[in-house]
Amino acid sequence: MDNETEQENQGGKQAYNFQIQPQTVDFQYRVTMAAFVDILLTAAGYNADHNGFGIRKLNEINSSWVLLRLAVELDRFPLQYEDIIVETWIEEVGRAMTSRNFCIKDKDGKIMGYAASNWAMIDLDTRHAKDLYLLEGIREFTSGISAPIKKPIKLKSVDSEPFDVFKVKYSDIDINGHTSSMRYIEWVSDYFSLDDYRKKQVSRFEINYVNEMLFGDEVSIFANEYEPDDFRFEIRKNGTTSSRARIVFC
Amino acid sequence: MDNETEQENQGGKQAYNFQIQPQTVDFQYRVTMAAFVDILLTAAGYNADHNGFGIRKLNEINSSWVLLRLAVELDRFPLQYEDIIVETWIEEVGRAMTSRNFCIKDKDGKIMGYAASNWAMIDLDTRHAKDLYLLEGIREFTSGISAPIKKPIKLKSVDSEPFDVFKVKYSDIDINGHTSSMRYIEWVSDYFSLDDYRKKQVSRFEINYVNEMLFGDEVSIFANEYEPDDFRFEIRKNGTTSSRARIVFC
Q1: ipTM for this prediction
Q2: How far apart are the C-alpha atoms of B143 and B9, rounded to whole Å?
Q3: Chain B interface disruption, residue of A27, A56, A217, A233, most B CBs within 10 A
Q4: What pTM did the predictor assign?
């Protein structure tokens, strides 16, 4: 790739504006990680649409996007009613997976943090991954532009006693009939007390989505302080891994 | 009151527009009752501000509004991305309580349902009710205009085995340090299965807020089918009544 092309190809980068709504903040008026990730996924959806590879387009070939991994690092959390800008772009497109990055800015353009994510395309019937190269033109969005944070890693299994056990309920289920991605984040965020959140701030959040959960599944959640202030989580449904997550405090 | 004044006094009635956001719908693309009530409370907040008696104004005298009772009746539930109009106005203003009604319309002005609510003003330190007549000019909003649904009733105690027991967690707590009003509604809505929601539609929802809940409180939830398709709920914290609710299916 020559310099000219490199400069032109920004991976379909666009910026989207959001305002932090009152329902999405915690007791300290800060957006919750669950609600913040929801904003990132909304921006990803807009951008995929804009680039011609949105959910509706994929639905035409009986496919959809699934989020595999996500890492978020924030210097500070946006506050209630704050206006933020989310820039997002494609970094790589492989056959099995594509990577999408995010840069989060305040309304004056000051960078608040970054996020990095990996996505696969699945068949809506088999729920298995499909070859991304079937999407004509998607490889043109390969920009090679990374975000200046560590990429989301494959998190290891967590062995401990579950700190919470319950069943998946009506309010956990989204329009796809699965537990919404936001709930997983709420469940692991709920491991900590208000005092923990008063004293420390989350500096990195990471999640791996492994298996979807359905209504009535028995959920058990495991936690382990892997290193000081580096917590690892595992969410199992009926005994199998559904998701793994990581919360690092600074 | 002569006819002229009666026609003029609409209880400070205003109409507000909302769009049903994707995060707020259930597996059938219908707004959840919890999210719908949140829209009503947002409209109530806008209207109180507009009439000069918003939360910020009450905060100046170390007071706030608390919702005591609410009843909602919908012919149909708004769907994802649907634009709706919420009209709201004051019906009565007593010393201990004021009543506010709502009319919900689709974008073409067709009525989808109504809601009726009762509110008290509390002192932010003692959390006790204060005389509403301390608010100069508020009685002028008395319109006497009711909504054509039964007013919210004082719900009776429910005795049964709890169907759910857990502790109040980080994600349940709002900026006031209490469990958010929305969570109570999610918790009772979760008594039913997806099949129940597929087969029947909620025709009336009712809630009484009795006592606030804090982080770490032990919650137990009781349910009873009072009459066929008329379910009554009680939410207790550490053994005392925190809230009662009612869900009627048609």
Answers
A1: 0.92
A2: 6
A3: A27
A4: 0.92
